[in-house]
Design a protein that fits this description.
homodimer; 341 residues; alpha/beta; TIM Barrel; Helicase, Ruva Protein, domain 3; eight-stranded parallel β-barrel; 14 helices; 2-IPM_HCS-like (chains A, B); 4-hydroxy-2-oxovalerate aldolase (chains A, B); metal ion binding (chains A, B); EC 4.1.3.39 (chains A, B)
């Protein structure tokens, strides 16, 4: 069993729901570039409801599928480009267009009981030599037996992996464990999990999914996504590391990604600031955060480095003066280095 | 083993961290009244760092401890009033003042390795015939053996319960399970858990704590609290119900509490809107929320009732037109009732 987890970043697709599909090609380009640098495995791009879904009923995207995908494609090299594709919204011609623009991974999705409608699209993608995932949406509406049956169909069409989506954020860890384990134990392909945070359980559900054998997880930077948002990428990576799982990226890189994207990606879904995740990772009292953020701004020092130093001194509440002391040490170090240079 | 969980609401104390201790007596009175109505067991009130902590270094509260506590006291009848008390910040005279104003539950706290400093205060509270909890802060900084040793000291002083605080939001479910189980298996008093959401795990950690035998949980409405916030009360209650645990309140009442408090309690910590939790509870696609909220506002109908109807129809994505249909049915029902009246 592998302990390396593939991360599929849905920020530019599921996140599009949170802004009524108004992500611009400039935002997409900027994010794709930052995700490539951070070592994200797969970057999913498009209208919230996938290819062909831009419409008056569901909301018009800012450009055609091809325009949105091309904006990301130009900035991805080691990271793969993927699309969400729901038959009905998406048509065969959309697959053709996505192949032309250079999409690597096609996530062919259906309601959790309707896998049969994905057949021609999965087969089409596989004939083109690309990767096809079978995605079962609203997976809380079917039991483990039914999900296995549907997954087996997708597997028989040639799907390289099956992804269970908790589209409503309904699931609790016990349900996730049962359903993922059933698939992992009975399929020959990889299994992935896509959580939503409606009950505050997205990170926990993702962790129990990998503990049950899933090897792929979906997440979004700063928890961007439909409804309560998806699994928050940087928190997920921190917890995966704690449990000994590896990813192509790491916590420091996803923390930087979260910081960088604050400049151009206004996230409207609830999320935990990277300062708060960082104190959590280092085990520092939550009440330190306002002090740390204020000093980082005033003295132009790195909040991450300050946290590291405070953690090394095992600081606890009541020792707030030490935060000031260490912050000034970092600032002095920077100033000395500048003076020498 | 009981399956009834006592909820201790830290909105007006840990939440005070999130507004630099600027909660007003008016906000405290309004919240206490709403919490009483919602059936919350215990309402904790005061400066973020507890009694006696209002100071230039840590931030001045808007009133004296007595003023803040009295504001809540006037609105609590079945709900109990509690204080956070850290020896050093808090002094014996503060305990006296709290007794005078009618505090029911004293949470006497120390760093996780310093339980001995709580002795005289726990004994004082017990002599006065009130409830004393021993609280171990920053519990990630001690292992299960050490926490048990410290808890036993507090128990020997007369503490009615021991609460483990994950003050930094550092802990993962495996750590919580190990530490809580160790205490539950070896103490004669109840055990409680206080989570922070820095890694997105507050709800999950609270659930594994009760699965390990804890019978008391701390939470805050809309996730209010220091740093990334505490466990979000209304999400927690929804998940507790899913797992078959009972509380004196229920999801509908905490959902109402979350809604009511939007009017007078501006929460600055990340949290999930009650609309998103509600769709999660009912298993509705997250992308429905903007439609549901828009229709609820336009037609003056109850979003909760609309969710119930959509769930009864097992609605899935692509059927957005049915949301409009059901919303108009509810509106027509209200209008008909008004016409008859």
């Amino acid at each position: 069993m592998t302990n390396t987890i593939i991360l599929s970043d849905a920020t530019l697709r599921d996140g599009n729901h949170a802004v009524r599909h108004q992500l611009t090609t400039e935002q997409i380009a900027n994010y794709a570039s930052a995700a490539e640098q951070a070592g994200i495995d797969i970057v999913e791009v498009g209208h919230g409801n996938g290819m062909g879904a831009s419409s008056c009923l569901l909301g018009k995207a800012t450009g055609t599928d091809t325009e949105l995908l091309a904006a990301a494609r130009a900035h991805l090299r080691d990271s793969k480009l993927s699309v969400h594709f729901i038959p009905g919204f998406g048509k065969t011609t959309d697959i053709e267009r996505a192949l032309e623009v250079g999409v690597d991974v096609f996530r062919i999705a259906s309601h959790c009981t309707e896998a049969n409608i994905t057949r021609q699209y999965i087969e089409h993608v596989k004939r083109a030599g690309k990767t096809a995932y079978g995605v079962l949406m609203m997976s809380h509406m079917a039991d483990a037996d039914e999900l296995l049956k549907q997954s087996r169909q997708m597997q028989s069409y040639g799907a390289d992996a099956i992804v269970l989506m908790d589209s409503a954020g309904f699931s609790t860890p016990d349900l996730v464990t049962e359903k993922v384990a059933r698939l992992v134990d009975n399929l020959s392909v990889e299994v992935g999990y896509h959580a939503h945070n409606n009950l505050g359980l997205a990170v926990a559900n993702s962790i129990v999914a990998v503990q049950a054998g899933a090897t792929m997880l979906d997440a979004c930077v700063r928890g961007f996504g439909a409804g309560a948002g998806n699994t928050q990428l940087e928190a997920l990576v921190a917890v995966l590391e704690r449990y000994g799982y590896r990813t192509r990226t790491d916590f420091a890189h996803t923390a930087a990604l979260a910081r960088i994207t604050e400049a151009f990606l206004p996230v409207r879904t609830p999320h935990i600031s990277i300062a708060n995740i960082t104190t959590g990772v280092f085990g520092l009292f939550s009440g330190f955060v306002p002090h740390i953020e204020r000093l980082a701004t005033e003295l132009h020092i790195d909040a991450f480095e300050l946290c590291e130093r405070l953690a090394a001194r095992k600081l606890v509440a009541g020792q707030e003066d030490v935060i000031v002391e260490e912050a000034h040490r970092i600032a002095a170090k920077i100033n000395n280095a500048a003076a020498v240079a």
